[in-house]
Design a protein that fits this description.
The protein is of the alpha/beta class. It is 53% helix and 13% strand. The radius of gyration is 46 Å and the shape is elongated.
Length: 357
């Protein structure tokens, strides 16, 4: 009896172990997500997939797809990843296998579904050491004495710039602070500033059309750097004065900010009005000289302007004035009246029908 009892107990234990193993090694529900990388050196199937540094899955497969590499990852089915997530290929140490980092962690909103793909625009691969060294070599060669700095102009410009800034840190800092304070006021009127800049953009376009003149100006950069070097003391004083002016400007803006913003709005409106009436202004400038010339010709040699008026020359011609003229023969009734044309200034005695004295 004891023998069969032991055999039965062993059989039950064996069945439980087998059932537990089958349950543990069963196919668990997973979430499959892919990401396209520009390159994925050092990533292999089985490498870790992390979120905030915590391993949550593994790399399932790596598939070259033309100019990109698609890495397919397997994650637990209940893993939530933001729909706008990004993916990085990272190396935790100098001698260590790389892994895929998904970020940011999910908080709320849409999540990536089964089979979702993170596009290459939202993935990042570490630059290889050989590529970094090659890029630095190309940059230093381009800036070297055989290329851009063949005449020493670049080195001289850097030297002059360093000498100019040396010892002037505080004035530069004050100037930047003044500009920052002024910009805070302008930020509150961004729409007006935008409108003004749009109008100024049309003016700048005229400068772009004169590119040849601008190109000739760039040829004088080397001479300008020498001039700055010679005038270093004067430039230092100017920077100090500029710092003071910007401080005063900042104080002015703080005291009179509202009127200035109103003036800025009116300036934007004025510039817009001028541009909208450009054709009328052009016509006025074309016809104004002719009008002024005709006005000068209307003046006679004796400095008078002759005006022709179509009016009555005798007061008795009016019905209401005839009865008065019959009773009182005044000069207005019997004289010549107002003559045509009338000289200016007029002869008052002649208008009344009398003789000039």
């Amino acid at each position: 009896m004891g023998k069969w009892y032991r055999i039965g107990a062993a059989a039950v234990v064996a069945v439980l172990l087998v059932a537990g193993g089958l349950w543990y090694f069963r196919d668990k529900p997973t979430l499959t997500v892919s990401a396209d990388f520009a390159h994925a050196d050092g990533i292999f199937p089985g490498n870790s997939v992390n979120i905030l540094g915590v391993p949550v899955g593994t790399v399932k497969s790596i598939e070259p797809r033309g100019g990109t590499v698609r890495i397919t990852m397997s994650l637990p089915a209940d893993t939530r990843i933001p729909a706008t997530a990004r993916a990085w290929v990272l190396t935790p140490a100098v001698v260590s296998e790389k892994y895929v980092e998904l970020s940011p962690a999910y908080e709320s909103g849409d999540a990536l579904g089964e089979g979702a793909v993170i596009p290459v625009e939202r993935t990042h691969s570490p630059i290889k050491w050989d590529d970094l060294v090659r890029s630095l070599d190309s940059l230093l060669t381009a800036l070297g004495p055989e290329r851009l700095n063949s005449g020493g102009g670049l080195g001289q410009a850097l030297s002059v710039g360093a000498n100019l800034i040396d010892g002037n840190g505080q004035p530069f800092r004050d100037a930047v602070r003044g500009v920052a304070q002024a910009s805070e006021l302008l930020a509150g009127k961004s729409d007006d500033v935008t409108g003004l800049l749009d109008k100024l953009n049309q003016l700048v376009q005229l400068l772009v059309d004169n590119k040849s003149t601008v190109d000739s100006l760039t040829g004088s950069v080397s001479q300008a750097t020498q001039l700055f070097d010679q005038q270093r003391g004067a430039i230092t004083n100017t920077i100090g004065q500029l710092s003071g002016v910007l401080g005063d400007l900042s104080e002015l803006i703080q005291r009179h900010g509202k009127p200035l913003t109103e003036d800025l709005t009116k300036l934007s409106q004025l510039s817009g009005s001028i541009l909208s009436r450009q054709q009328a202004l052009t016509e006025l400038l074309d016809t104004a000289p002719l009008g002024f010339e005709n006005w000068t010709r209307a003046i006679s040699p004796d400095d008078r302007i002759r005006i022709r008026l179509n009016i009555s020359t005798n007061f008795a011609q009016f019905p209401a004035g005839k009865a008065l003229c019959d009773r009182l023969p005044i000069p207005f009734c019997t004289g010549a009246g107002i003559t045509n044309p009338i000289p200016f200034p007029p002869n008052i005695a002649g208008l009344l029908g009398g003789a000039a004295r």
